[in-house]
Amino acid sequence: MTSSLEVDRVTVEYTAGAPVLRDVSVAAQAGRMLAVTGPSGAGKTTLLRAMAGVLRPVSGAVAVDGKPLRDRDDAVSRRVVLIPQDNGLATILTAGENVQVVLVANGFSPEDARRATAESLEHVGLSAQAGQLVEELSGGQQQRTAIARGLALSGAVLLADEVTSELDAANRARVLDLLRAEADRGACVVLATHDLEAAAACDAELHLLDGAAELVRA
Ligand SMILES: Nc1ncnc2c1ncn2[C@@H]1O[C@H](COP(=O)(O)OP(=O)(O)OP(=O)(O)O)[C@@H](O)[C@H]1O
């Protein structure tokens, strides 16, 4: 089944009366990649967190398949996957454990979780690091572990926040190919990025500036 993600006139505030996003609307469609660009502090992470159901807008709504998201639990049950900017990995677990634990928590049997973990780490080129503690991995290897974890969940919506920032050119190209493969299997992919080449690899681009959004490429 394919899904669509609609952001309808969303305003988000961290402090009452000081919106970080103002009246932002955009739709992300199944099978396509949407880039969210803009300078540091423009609100890219805030928008992805609202899309993920982590932040509740003060007005407007985020909907998947026309049904508004209630909160993060609702978003998880509707297969909205967020790969966060800070990776969100448990540093005292291995790369493999980080992926596997999340899969089991999402209903995979231990055997399926083991298989999907091995496949996903292989896709990002980390098979040899599966048993290594996250705190022993480089920044780019940690970033790829978080990507492997997000990809393994096979979301209907995949929200990737600055997932190429620590990667060399070859790994960046590999990750963009993997995100494209997610879109090709029917996911809505949203990529927040500073990287102009990564943005150019997407089908559409939403540019944020001072909390307002403009669709610069549809
Ligand atoms: N938890 C928070 N509490 C208060 N203000 C916040 C919080 N998180 C972000 N902000 C503010 O919201 C604005 C947008 O931040 P956000 O992280 O969404 O920007 P960004 O475009 O992702 O930036 P970057 O490219 O540097 O990651 C910034 O002014 C930031 O200081």
UniProtKB/TrEMBL annotation:
Top-level taxonomy: Bacteria, Bacillati, Actinomycetota, Actinomycetes, Micromonosporales
Family in the record: Belongs to the ABC transporter superfamily.
Entry-linked InterPro entries: AAA+_ATPase (IPR003593), ABC_transporter-like_ATP-bd (IPR003439), ABC_transpr_LolD-like (IPR015854), P-loop_NTPase (IPR027417)
Record keywords: ATP-binding, Nucleotide-binding
Organism encoding this protein: Catellatospora aurea
Protein name: ABC transporter ATP-binding protein
Alphabetical list of SMART domains matching this protein: AAA
Pfam families: ABC_tran (PF00005)
Domain of life: Bacteria
Coiled coil, from the record: none
Keyword ATP-binding: yes
Entry's Gene Ontology molecular function annotations: ATP binding
Keyword Acetylation among record annotations: no
Residues spanning the signal sequence: none
Domain ABC transporter: 5-218
